[in-house]
Amino acid sequence: MEYVSPDSEDISVADSGIVYQEKDIFESVRKEFKLNKGVEYYFRIIQERIILGETERMFKDIRSWLPEMSPVDRLEMNEREKKAFIQEVERVLPNPNLLRFFAHLALFFYSNRLPDYNPENDSFENQITEILLFYWQYLADCTPRQIPLVTLYTSKLPRNIQVEFYSHYLKDIQQTKERKSCLLLAEEYNLDVASITKRVVELIRFDPQGKGRENEMDRDISPEDQTKIQAIEWLCFDTSRSLEALLQANRLAREFISDGRLKAANMLITVKYTAKIDPSVQNNAVREHNCLKQYLASLNYYQEWFSFDEMEDSETTKEELAKRAKDQIRKTLFGQLGDSSFLEDKKEKVDVEDPDRSQQILFLKKRCIPELYYLWHRLCLALDDPEESLDLINIVADENRRHYSYFSQEQLQRLLELARGSCLVFLQTGNDPIGFTIY
């Protein structure tokens, strides 16, 4: 019998004189042995593609067997959609373990790191990446959580999508122990932990579930707000990320205060984010954090004075509470030493690029500064100090701080009306309208 080299494209059968091509053989096998779409069906096609050296066609076949929607479009799935995804995979494949087999084939034939993924490109490498992503998504949606496996397969994805996919996976993890485990595994598999922790906090902070609610100043802290506050923990495991934790806390505090969610802001601000930051680093982030903290303290002290009941047993008098609240408001507006202004940066360059920060800071100034002056005026009257309440006009008009620029025309008019009330108090006591004694 004639010897046929394994590398030969043709298989010769000497005794029959017939020469078969490999493709003809597989065509005859398909006609002779018809398989239903079970596991054997997929294995036979894959074996055929490998023997014929049609690797690229094999992966195109595999991709065609999977759900049409790209895994990239599934990142924002809710719980119901995740369950539907699992059901869809189990519907199109006779055995979910096939998905793992496909992923392992992709890794075997493409052992080098995959190039960057581009969803707009229908390249061979992108199809391999999507096969891996389907298995990654399947693992990510499994119950109980498969954290080690998800982290392992994240490390096999192209570098440009590792952060986004792993961050989406982490944003639903609430337990501190599990969070630490995820980050340790991420370090073990050389993932970009710094970018991941920052991104997961941003994903939680921008969660649309927390938007569009009623603006209630005294409402209870919502579960969504609690989740956003607890997300900052992702940045607190590594002391080198303390500044980033502070920046994210400031962004969230600006959001809470702007929306009037003051209980949530108070809960957020009680965490000592600045404790691990070098005190010599006098940056805008630290100053902003302290300003927001002072503002909330002013509102809390004012509320204590306002709701104080003289009939209750207390070592503190209402007058003492009013003085404390007034001093706190002054400290908030002008700083501890009276040499600064509310939410004014000490240096022009911001610590980390934040394109929305300047607009948010301006909004807060316009919201908070007039409010603090109105509370200050009311406390002055409560302390029977119309002279200081009248002097607020001069303080607002001061050109160094330019606080008047944060008042609307209506707000300035209201402040003048309050000053007019102080003038009437002076007239009732026999003084002229600005407090001087009439002889």
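Above is the first protein from milestone M3; the second protein from the same milestone is given next.
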Amino acid sequence: MKKKKALNTYYIAVPREYDQFLALILVRDKNNKDIVPVRIQDNSVQAQYNATIYKVDLTHYVESNQEEQLIITETYFNRMSALPKKITIFEDQNVEIYDNPHFFSPYPTEKSQTTYKLASSPIFYTEEDATAKGGNIEYGPYRNDGAFTRSKIRLHFENTRPFPVFKNVTRVIEVSHWGNIAIEDFYKLANEGAELTGEYNKVDFNKYTQHTGKNSLKNLKAKLPYNSWGVYYKDEVGNISTSRAFRDSASNSVDMTIEPRFALLGGWKSNFYIGYNLPAKYTLFVEKADPTNYYLRQNSGLIFKGIMAEEFTIKVILPEGATEINYQFPFPLNEVSEEKSFSYFDFEGRPTFVFKIKNVVDYHDQTFTVNYKFSQNSIIREPLM
């Protein structure tokens, strides 16, 4: 009998109707190593099973008859929708979601069970194969499912929380060899919950009201690097004074709470800026063996946790005269481009790299590095002019 080969790949299937809402798939193996699967193009599978396939390259081989434990986390956006889509300021927000309660896989599945944890007891749920207890609904257990098994359930329940989404975030990091790193983030924020219909006034609702406009977004909490200084928060009108920040040694961060100029009800939007400075000695490093070789280390995630950004642009402006520029990110980028930025006394322009990432979630809160050469003579050129 021919011995079965050991395997080091695993495939994940996602229904095509949900794939467009998929922000991230993350696989964790038994060694607690995170693996990001790669989407593969298989038109035959897409056509036959209406599925998109992702390939996981395991860190080791799995022998025949050997078990391997994998934890698969799929992060989606815009899967829930408000129902009704518009509400008055006095009404509570309800949402609905459709899903497949089976473990959707390209492999046969011996046993599976799915639990949905809702924000409240359901208004409606598909009762077939379901057991409900409060806001928890269990489907299954299902036994001996074939590959690509699916069915459709509907859940309708109350969820009065706001649905904040950053439609676009642009971060500008300006590097100075005079001891400072200046950072400014520009945010385009939307509350994608049930849209407000009917009248709005400050008598029936304000940001301190608890019983009306429950799905409004009244404040946001951010974490800045511990050594941040010169923090500011403003919008197109100007400075916004409704913000608080303090340096928290326990969390090794500057904890910041901001309030928009007006609370964001469903369907409302707001644009704003947050800027701060960092001492260069904490993020810009020089190689001892080669004092012209520099390494800039910066965070690649959002300062607001638990909120997705549909598009995130990081623009790194290096000093004029920087050469041999390289970069390393811990995850794939959607687009990279190079341009020039100009400021006072610049001749050739400052090398600027623009990194674009889509569907940014908390996983992207990691560290990236930009490496470049910079002569000591270049730093004194502008002061001499």
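Note on the second protein: The longest strand covers residues 164-176.
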